[in-house]
Design goal:
alpha+beta, two-stranded antiparallel ribbon, globular
Length: about 70
Amino acid sequence: MDPEAEEIFFELLLREIQGESIIFISLRFSTVRRTDQILSLRHGQIDEQGTHEELMQHNGRYAALFRMQARWYG
């Protein structure tokens, strides 16, 4: 999806699922950081778990991958 379509999709999705849970799988960190809880998987196992802010403070693999992807956005 292009950024505009992605924004519309998530606004509609978040409006529709209020009070419900969904499992969303993404490799795009700009999408992942909008969630309430992140599970980072490595070799099929949960490697890290928390909010975006918690995982960035933990400074583990999630934070490293986030920074790696974010550097392309200046």
